[in-house]
Structure formats: C-alpha cells, structure tokens
Amino acid sequence: MELWHRGERLEAEREIERLLRDSPEDPKALRSLAEIYAGSGRAGQSISLWRRLVRLSPADAGILRQLARALLADRATAEAVDVLRAAIALEPTNARAYNNLGLAQLRGGDAVGAVTSLEQAVAVDPAYALGYMNLGLARHSRGEPPSTLIMSHGV
C-alpha cells in the first residue's frame, strides 16, 4: 500500500497480486487489492475479493459494508441492500450502515424503506448530520413538503 500511496499504482497492484499467488487467503492482501480495484473504478473485480473476504470473516460488518459499496458502484442495488441488512444485523448501532442502507433503498426506488432506515440512523446517532440530510432527501422524494421535514426534527 506504500507503493499505492506514493503513486506507483501499477507496481502496488502487481506486488499484492504476487503476494496473493503465494498466500491466496491473506486477508490484508485481499483487502488491499479490493480497495485498489474499488478506488480505480473496477467495482466488479473488487466485488469478488470482498466476497472472498466475507467467506474468511463472515462476522466482519465492515467487510460487508465495503462489499455493499462495491455492489452499489456496480449497480447491484438489491444485493447491496441485502448485504447492508446483514451488516446491520452484526452491528445494530452503526448509524452509517443505516444511512447507507437508506441511500441504497432510495436508489432502488424504495423511498418508504429509505425513510425508515434513515430514521433509524439518526435514532442511533442523534448528532449524525449526514443522516438528517439524507432523511430529508428521502422524505422529499416521497413528496413531503419541506415544512414537514423541518418540524419533525427541528432546525
């Protein structure tokens, strides 16, 4: 990853791929390569690595959230929603996971579900400003007038 951060991206990728040939289940190398793929717009390639990581660490909600992010980038919205629900089952007090679920639901056309998830995000973390902003967007997409949005959560 040092090579990656220095801008030697191709060499970083090759080095991690070499490491994975010798140790195909090395979680650090898999995660690094998945992040490289995701960061360079190759969501499809990163998805397969995130899935391998999920098999290695099925109780790691962070890996599930990363898989969901890649799935969303690859336009696999329904699967991303399922993966985010699994992440929330592992970490039910993670406001960011509820926020991401709400945004995925909104992208998938489920504004009602999005509002519910985003309400949960701000219930878990009442100081989560991004959650409130996205909740307002979800409510607006349902056709609620702006005054309703302000009155329900204050200014």
Task: Give your account of this protein's structure.
This protein is mainly alpha-helical. It has helices spanning 2-5, 9-22, 27-39, 43-56, 61-73, 77-90, 95-107, 111-124, 129-141, 146-153. The chain folds into 2 domains: 1-91, Tetratricopeptide repeat domain (Serine Threonine Protein Phosphatase 5, Tetratricopeptide repeat, Alpha Horseshoe), CATH 1.25.40; 94-155, Serine Threonine Protein Phosphatase 5, Tetratricopeptide repeat (Alpha Horseshoe), CATH 1.25.40.10.
According to CATH, the fold-level topology of the largest domain is Serine Threonine Protein Phosphatase 5, Tetratricopeptide repeat
How many domains? The number is 2
| Dominant shape | elongated
Helical residue percent band? over 70%
CATH superfamily of the largest domain, by name, is: Tetratricopeptide repeat domain
List the secondary-structure elements in sequence, H or E.
Answer: HHHHHHHHHH
Summed up, the helix count is 10
Architecture of the largest domain in CATH? Alpha Horseshoe
Briefly note the structural class of the backbone: mainly alpha
> Largest sheet, if any?
none
Arithmetic mean pLDDT? 90
Radius of gyration: 18 Å
Q: What top-tier CATH class of the largest domain fits best?
A: Mainly Alpha
Low-confidence stretches: none
Strand content: under 5%
Give the N-to-C terminal Cα separation. Answer: 43 Å
Q: Using DSSP, what is the number of strands?
A: 0
